[in-house]
Amino acid sequence: MAAVPTPRTAAGRKGLDAIMGEPRRAVLAFDFDGTLAPIVPDPDDARAHPGAVPALSRLAPRLCAVAVVTGRPAEDAVRYAGLAGAVGLEHLTVLGAYGAERWDAATGSVTAAPPPPGVAAVRAELPGLLEDSGAPPGTRIEDKGRAVAVHTRRTDDPAAALTLLSGPLHALAERHGLLVEPGRMVLELRAPGADKGAALEAYVREVGGGAVLYGGDDLGDLAAFAAVEKLRGEGVPGLLVCSGGGETGESVPEIADRADLVVDGPSGVVRLLESLAGSLGDGADGPDTP
Ligand SMILES: O=P(O)(O)OC[C@H]1O[C@H](O[C@H]2O[C@H](CO)[C@@H](O)[C@H](O)[C@H]2O)[C@H](O)[C@@H](O)[C@@H]1O
User: Which protein family is named in the record (predicted)?
Assistant: First the structure.
């Protein structure tokens, strides 16, 4: 059994000690794309790493709660990760669309905030705007229902395409009361009022978590990192995990620099989960059994 890696910060070591010491008080939450799922060229092709759900299934019965916190629509994350009906994950929650949507395994249903105004207008104007802006071949629109994203990963120069489109997309978002959420080779136009930090903080409080681990890879996860830091300030130990590099070789420095522990992409996240599951034990003879 692989040893659980040691966080590089004192706060992270305290967070990990709290999780290992009292797992039934611990909340583990993870981003989806780039963290539980490898980054792939087409967003529709994203799937959880084959080891991710089995590892979460082993861990979850030992914990207070497990959640996925994602910019994806909640239903997409459930489908792409294969979460519905997963053994051991009967109480898992997916906080989707940056917290505007929620899926609970216990009910199998989604609750969602009202659809944001402005998205329909952006959806209608976007193809013309991309053409007028000289968007290169390979630029892709992802319709997320309550948001619209523009991906450049499949263009010849994804970073240059993002730079080219950034100004026009910001102007379009502003005209319709939306914000631009930047990510890995993507700019998403979505409604303000939700973020992963508020979603995670509310969830930890709701389930009465006494320690928290959050794993993420992208700028949208910074708000969740800030929520863990806020909870730490209130005496709830926390561990911040960056899913870095990995299969794409990409790392988001803002996340890597702020994390207590950097692992090697979704494969590294799975190895971390497996080491935690191995250390906590799978059965009634585990370390936290009275
Ligand atoms: O919050 P997340 O679960 O990490 O979702 C963030 C965005 O992820 C997706 O885009 C990213 O993954 C794609 C598939 O691997 C990749 O092609 C793209 O370059 C990445 O930016 C998703 O398409 C977005 O809608 C999510 O908001």
Answer: Belongs to the trehalose phosphatase family.
Domain co-membership, 123 together with 174: yes
Of all atoms in ligand 1, which is nearest to the CA of residue 45?
14
Instruction: Establish whether 17 is a catalytic residue.
Output: no
The helix or strand, by DSSP H or E, that contains position 242, with its residue range, turns out to be strand 238-244
Helices (H), the chain: 10-21, 52-59, 74-81, 119-132, 158-175, 196-207, 222-233, 253-258, 265-280
Kindly state whether residues 87 and 207 are assigned to the same domain: yes
Q: Do 139 and 214 lie in a common domain?
A: no
The residues near 218 (Cβ < 8 Å, ≥ 6 apart) are 31, 33, 34, 183, 184, 252, 255
Q: How many CB atoms lie within 10 A of CB 42?
A: 11
Instruction: Kindly state the DSSP code that residue 37 receives in the 8-state scheme.
Output: B
Domain that holds residue 151: 119-190
Rounded to the nearest whole angstrom, what is the distance from the C-alpha of residue 152 to the centroid of ligand 1? 11
- 70 touches ligand 1 (CB under 6 Å): yes
Does residue 195 carry a pLDDT above 80?
A: yes
Mean pLDDT of 219-244: 98
Whole-model pTM: value is 0.96
Q: Confidence band (pLDDT; 50, 70, 90) for 284?
A: very low
